[in-house]
Amino acid sequence: MKLFAGVPGWTSHADVIVIGSGVAGLTTALNARAANLSVLLVTKAQIDEGSTKWAQGGIAAALGPGDTPDEHKTDTLIAGAGLCDIDAVNVLVTEGPEAVRKLIARGAVFDKSESGEIALTREGGHHRNRILHAGGDATGAEVSRALLAAVQNDSGIEVIEHALVIDALLSDSGRVCGVTLHVIGAGSSSGVGRALARAVVIATGGLGQVYSQTTNPSVSTGDGVALALRAGAAVADVEFIQFHPTVFWRDTSSAGQQPLISEAVRGEGAILLNHKGEHFMAAVHPQADLAPRDIVAKEIFNQMREAHVPHVWLDATQVKDFQERFPTIYASCRANGIDPENQLIPVAPASHYASGGVLVDLNGESTVPGLYVCGESACTGAHGANRLASNSLLEGLVFGARISEHISSHLPEQEVPTDDSDEKRILIDPAIRIPLQLAMSQGAGVMRSEKSLQITLTTLQQLGARHTQLPGVDAWEVSNLYVLATAIVRSALERQESRGSHWRTDYPDTNPIWEKRILQRLDQNGTWSSSLMEVVK
To answer: Where are the domains of the chain?
Structure first.
C-alpha cells in the first residue's frame, strides 16, 4: 500500500539515503562517510529543525567516578518494566561511553564542573549522576550544532532540505532500493521525485503530533514509521507512548508543541505540589520526584483528576542559580508569565516520546531487507515499556554507528525498483487532523480503557474513510498520522494490563503473561495483522 503522490519527475542516486537530520540521522551519515560511502541526507524542514535540538536534559552514559555500564543497565531495565531486550540494553550501555567520547571529539562541548571535569546531573530513574548537559538546558542544540558542522564540512553528503519522504521503493527481490519524496521549492529537485540507493536509513524521529498536546515540533508526524509500515515492515511496542510529566501548562485551548520543563530541573531539587500544596510524590515512590517518568506522569494525572484541575505545580524556587543552570527554560517560563525563581510553574503531562517504533535488530535493520531505522523511529528493545531519561540521544549515537558499520560491510549492488503502478494507493483528507488528535488525546492518552480505546478506534475508522485525490504535504502527513494512530490504538487494546507508559484503568495490574512485544503489520491491501514476540531477557 502506498500514498497517492503522482509520477516522480526526477531521480537522484547515492550509496545510502538517510532520512532525518537529528542525532540519529547525522551520526549515521557521518559514519557512512567514514566508510567512504556517498550519502543523500533528506530532511523535512531545515536541517536543524528536528527534535534533537529541543532536548533539554542531556545524554546518559556511565562516565562518572564509580559509575559502570552495569549500573546504567540496571536503571534502564527497571524503567523498561520487563520489556527491555537485554542484548540491546547491553549494546546501549557498553558502547555508550565511547560514542559520547566520539561526539566530544567531533566538537560537542558539555558543561564543566568547577574542577574542570564534565558536570554530571541526575534525572528520573537514575541512581547516579550520569547525565551530561550543555548550555545548562540546551544539550540537544549543542549536539545538533556539533554534528551539523561536521556534516556541512563533508562534500560527500548531499543535503536536500524541505523534503517529505513519501514511500519506499522495492525491488523484485523485496529489498528497499530507494524512496519517493516531495521537495518544496525551486530548482531541478522540486516536486515529487525518487532517490535510489543501496540502503535506506529512516531517522525521522517521533510521532508526537498524533496527540493534541506534545513536546514534539510540528515536523514530528511519524513519516518514517508510516513509510516502513506501508513497505511491509513490522512495528513493535507502539502502545508505549511516554508522556513527559512536566510540560508547561498554558490553557485548555493550547495545542501542538508545548514548552518542556526538563526532568533535570527536578534533578536539581525542584518538587511537585498539588493544589493543596502537598508534596505528593514523596508518598508514591522511593525516588519521589525522580521516579521513572511513567510513574510521575500517572500520579500527576491522578492528582489532576481527583481535584478536577488541569495541572499541578512545580516548585523550583529552591533550585540554585536557576537562570544560569536552565537559561532556555527560564526564558520560556518568563515568556509565559511565570518567574520560576519566585513562582510556582503550572505543569501537566503531554505526549513526549515513542518507546516503540519499527522493529529492528542489533544492526538497526528492519524486517524488510535494505531498510534500516535509527533513533526514536526504531524499536531496538532498549527502552522496553518506558524509556529511561536521557537514553534517547545515546541510542541515536550508538545505533547510528552500528547501522553504518553494518551497511558498509553488507552493501549490495543497486537494485531496480519494481513496477508499482498497480499497487493500492490512499490519501486521507487533511481536515481530519484536529479530530484525530483530539480523539487520541481523549481515548489513548495517559490513562486508557477498553471503552475509551474502542471509541477511539471507531472514530479513527470513520475519519479514515474521508479520502482526497489532492496530494500535498498536509494530506501526506495526515495519512501518516492516521496509520500510526491506528497502530497505537490496536496495540493498546490488545495489551490487557498496565505496564510502563501504558496504563489501563480496566487492567490496572502488570501481568507476567504480557512480557511480550506486540507486533503490528500492514499488508498491501491495507489490512492489519498482529502477532506476539518473546522478549530476550
So the answer is: 8-240+353-409, 246-349, 426-534
